[in-house]
Amino acid sequence: MRDLRYIEDVSTLVIDQEKCIGCSLCTVVCPHGVFEMKERKAVIVDLDGCMECGACVNNCPVYALNVTPGVG
Amino acid sequence: MFADDKKEFHGEAIQILPSMPLNFNVGNNSVVSNRSSSNASLCCGTVSFIPPDFKEKYAVPGYKMECFVTGFVQTDAGQVPLVSTNMNLRDIFATAIVRAGITRNQYRISPGLYATGEPDKNSEVLVTANFKLTFDVLRSSLKGQNLWILVLDTKGVNVWCAAGKGTFSTCELVNRIHASELEKIVSHRRIIVPQLGATGIRAEEVKKQSGFRVIYGPIRAEDIGRFIENGRKADSAMRQVSFNFYERLILTPIEVNCALKPALITAIVIFMISGIGHDLFSFQAALMRGIMPLGFLLAAIVTGAVITPALLPFIPFKSFAPKGIITGSIASAYGLWFAHLFSPELLSSIGKSGMVAVFLFTTAVTSFLSMNFTGATPFTSPSGVEKEMKCFMPFQIIAIVIASILWISSAF
Predict the structure, then answer these.
(1) Which of B225, B241, B257 is the last residue of a domain?
(2) Residues of B with CB under 8 A from a CB of A
(3) Is 0.90 exceeded by the ipTM?
(4) Membrane-spanning residues where (chain B) (predicted)?
(5) Topology of A14-66 in CATH?
(6) Which residues, at least 6 apart from B118, have a Cβ–Cβ distance to it below 8 Å?
(7) What residue segments make up the domains of chain A, in order of their start?
(8) Is A69 on the interface with B (CB under 8 A)?
């Protein structure tokens, strides 16, 4: 979805690098390629691509991710 | 194997639902419902194949016939309906109706386990939603595959939306695995859940509660064959959603449909305020003056619900409301130009203030409808939509109020 972009700097997605165990499940479930693995940790590489669907938050085994979407 | 009989059978098989008291033989293959408690016989003895008029002759009251079921597979957990990977004319017609936004809330199939091809104990299990449109897209992309399909009860909603709303959930998946006795049907302990279902599923919890390991499959059903061939691995293209021209256009009939009811109310209001004039209120004036803004209302609906979505990436701005302001002002300008060409008298009769009123009204309605399309896209974040609504809705409302005042004043 590089050709269609939405409003910047609004996504409430946050990752706690301390908690991350590098399982890479967030890179699997994210439909917009928001995450990448760097040095055995997941990092957010495209925050503005995030649509706050919550797939990563729901599947993170160590609860390292959080998102608080608005009412839309 | 049951598949041998498929050539002879051209009619519709019935879908046997759990607890259906049936016990009959098909071909060389004994098809017996182990769920039968009464052992009631449907036919007298053994039939070699299911006759085409089976549905009419042997329909059991209270059970629904499904046109996509071609037979049954006998398993250790009873018989499982075998589904066709072909769409028949009825499916295609129903798809068109649902795409138009008619009866889409009732377009569902019975949840539970289905089979396609000739699956065995080592075959993969796909999980999906019980929205018939979703199920049709899935089964028609499974040609030549031998698979089990576990359909969750999502109340007739597609996988992604159901996952977001909590019906495509860990709880429903675990319960459905248990209800269909999946552990008796396959010897492995893995299920392929569509990636977009991840919003509603917690893989770790599914494993804990059911023993089945969740593997997130590709987003699109068409990639399932390659995904399985690649050893259940998806490439990055399979993992990213797209929203191309066709994918946007197919959503527009529902956008138009949803706009019609508010549009009818708007049309009534237009005629009411168009009738206000020197005589306080005149029906003749309402009809004469109301016809033009009504035309512009229709133009706004087409522009906001079809043109903006179709041209989405080519219209400047990232927010949808300003995209709508652009398409809406172009549509209004074109509309006024057409009015000038075909009926200059009508245009001059409303005066400058009337023209400004029509322009503001059309632009505001188009902007609102364009903003409404955020709900149908796969890339807009709720936080972003909230920001955009707070920012642009005041302008849209002010524009409508000014347009109404100018329109009424143009009658005097």
Answers:
(1) B241
(2) 160, 163-164, 195-196, 198-204, 216, 219, 234, 236, 239-243, 312-313, 318-319, 374-375, 377-388
(3) yes
(4) 263-281, 293-312, 324-342, 354-373, 393-411
(5) Alpha-Beta Plaits (3.30.70)
(6) B1, B3, B73, B146
(7) 14-66
(8) yes
